[in-house]
Specification:
This protein is an alpha+beta fold. The chain is built from 2 helices and 11 strands; from the N terminus they run H-E-E-E-H-E-E-E-E-E-E-E-E. The protein is globular.
Length: about 190
């Protein structure tokens, strides 16, 4: 078997695995929404009390904004004052940071940008930094990971480029990941 054939098979296997994982995540999300929510909070949701955002250093990045669980927050170049990540495929990979309606998001003193909220098409209230909605990346294996930095993907005809959100507000200068040609992106877990 040639090297090219082996590479293509691996590439398709990775894409199929990612698609299956995204579908599985959608199924799990749908199933979990029917159960009791007492005592637990969705991963992307900030609490009604305390600080919504924190700052930490992660994997070679300084001043990274994180949610209450320590998960890195991202914004996209394409979303400025509007929410474009609204399809089920996009939401399976990029989880919006939301707060309860009427809750004012808070951040650390070193945060130079302005925290606001915006209404999502599904009615939820999403936290934004300088007009850019904030998300966590489902392929970050845990707190302190920045695997979504520089990722590119396409959902509903919109090409997204994602960056780590920082306290200084400047986008990261990480090299972009492999470009995506479909809704599942160029992710290789």
């Amino acid at each position: 078997m040639s090297t090219t054939t082996t590479f293509r098979r691996r590439w398709w296997l990775r894409r199929a695995t990612l698609a299956a994982a995204a579908v599985g995540m959608l199924i799990v999300a749908g199933c979990s929404s029917t159960g009791s929510s007492a005592g637990r909070q969705p991963s992307g949701t900030a609490g009604t009390s305390g600080t919504t955002l924190t700052v930490r250093d992660a994997s070679g990045h300084n001043g990274v904004l994180t949610n209450a669980d320590g998960r890195t927050l991202y914004d996209s170049d394409q979303e400025d004052g509007t929410v474009l990540c609204k399809s089920s495929g996009c939401l399976a990979i990029w989880t919006p940071l939301t707060v309860s309606a009427g809750t004012r998001p808070t951040g650390p003193a070193e945060l130079t940008g302005k925290l606001t909220t915006m209404k999502r098409p599904d009615g939820k209230t999403q936290v934004a930094l300088d007009g850019k909605p904030l998300y966590t990346f489902s392929f970050d294996p845990g707190a302190g990971q920045v695997d979504g930095d520089g990722q590119t993907d396409t959902f509903d005809g919109t090409n997204f480029t994602w960056h780590v959100a920082t306290a200084a507000g400047a986008a990261s200068a990480a090299a972009p990941a492999a470009p995506a040609s479909s809704g599942t992106g160029g992710y290789y877990p």
